[in-house]
Amino acid sequence: MRVRIGAAVAAALLAVTTAVAPAAGAAAGQSSRPSPGEPGAGDPYFPLAGNGGYDAVHYDLDLRYQPPTPAPAPLTGELDGVATITIVPTRHLTRFDLDLRGLEVESVAVRGRPAEFTREGDELIITPKTILPRGKAVDVVVTYGGATGRPTDIEGALYGWVTTRDGAMVASEPEGSMTWFPVNDHPTDKATYDVAVTVPEGLVAVGNGDLVGATTQDGRTTWSWSSREPMASYLVTASVGNYELRQTTTPDGLPLIDAIDRDLPPSATAGLAQTAEMIAFFEGRFGPYPFSSYGAIVDDDSVGYALETQTRPIYSRRATESTVAHELAHQWMGNSVSPARWQDIWLNEGWATYAEWLWAEHDGGPTAAARFDEVMAIPADNSFWQVVVADPGPLGLFAGAVYDRGAATLYALRSQIGADAFDRLSMEWPSRHADSTATTEDFQALAEKVSGQDLAEFFDVWVRTAGKPML
Ligand code: ARG
Ligand code: ZN
């Protein structure tokens, strides 16, 4: 399922996990001696995801995609791309990596000059002709392509560029963007994106952010999308399908662009009907909606889940009201403020699940109190309580407890610090860390600041230890 890791990279991985924590990477950046970038960003769960030595600030992806030819052909498409990546070295850089799994690299150029490259596991290792000076932005151009399939994450769930009968569903959490473009694949390196996808005329390619244009020539249409706000790599999409584009505006003037598969019945999208009301509702809780547009992608194929792709969540076959509320809440909680390490994912999923509770209560459904009681009714000997929410392990990222115990933690925190402090926390958390990343420790520190309480024991009990909290 994952490309086998070569010996050199395995050695490097060891170096990353033992020596190159982010602090050590920063220290290396302070030295003026030219050195290579690390092959990973130092995340304990996915040590080789992301890279050291540079900051990627912008991706310009120019892709061409041919979906599978009509069934019963195998589900394989053809993707060809030119990725122009603007990087700023954080040290004098002799060599650096991008993450890329599968696909063939045809050529690499740095500062307009051909660069040497090799592949080792999921690392594309690039050696420019000359040392790249620290702090000076350079463009890296990677020409690549090949057959697409249906990649899976470490749990075996479909992710990345997932080939479908009539296109592709692109949902890359946590480190699946590397299955479709060369990338510094870790949330700590957010960037802006311009993505253009050329597909057979009649199909639609949907990206994040604003639609710049669509032009058709020789039976192919190029769809161009632009994301001006920084985005974590796992939130980038460029899904392709037999979509109808529906462009509207909320009463507050926010552009909505929905891409709805033409083969779906109207019932599949009933949950989108209250999108504008939901945005207004969450703005009242979390502050202004953080991006310049919104919308939904609803495909008639399935990856088995929905993902909060930035400004444009993607849904498998059906967008239910609770899932729509969940993915919308992620725009503040997860997308604007993202996990600094994958173990902090409860800050995404706990908040999004708690937001589902809030919306349901607001909309005349069960109260948040009832949902909390439901979680607390799970018997203490149930394995649900064995997950350490703030450190669920790479195979536990999407465990039920990350969502439900995470939400219950927030509900309990509100009881602990009071409604006023909790309301301030709900607003300050996404604004203080907007377009950035944060940790569980950052969250605890802010909760302590707004409440004036020492919350060490609270967070120990709720998220740092297994076992059912006693109320
Ligand atoms: N973040 C998504 C959600 O809660 C779930 C993503 C699941 N991804 C995966 N690779 N299994 O809406
Ligand atoms: Zn979620």
Task: Kindly summarize this structure in a few lines.
With 471 residues, the protein is α+β, with helices and mostly antiparallel strands.
What would you call the quaternary organization?
Answer: single chain
| Biggest beta sheet summary | 8 strands, mixed
Average pLDDT: 94
The strand line-up of the biggest sheet is 5-4-8-2-1-11-14-13
In CATH terms, the superfamily of the largest domain is: tricorn interacting facor f3 domain
Number of strands: 21
Which class of the largest domain in CATH terms?
Mainly Beta
Q: What's the domain count? A: 2
CATH architecture assignment of the largest domain = Sandwich
Helix content: 25-40%
Instruction: Kindly estimate the percentage of residues that lie in beta strands according to DSSP.
Output: 25-35%
Kindly describe this structure.
This protein is α+β, with helices and mostly antiparallel strands. It folds into two domains: 13-331, tricorn interacting facor f3 domain (Immunoglobulin-like, Sandwich), CATH 2.60.40; 342-464, Neutral Protease, domain 2, CATH 1.10.390.10. It has ten helices and 21 strands. The chain has an eight-stranded mixed beta sheet with strand order 5-4-8-2-1-11-14-13, with no helix packed on it. It starts with 6 loop residues before the first helix and ends in a 7-residue tail after the last helix. Mean pLDDT is 94; it is low at 1-29. The structure holds arginine and zinc ion. Residues 153, 157, 159, 173, 305-308, 326-327, 349, 398 line the site of arginine.
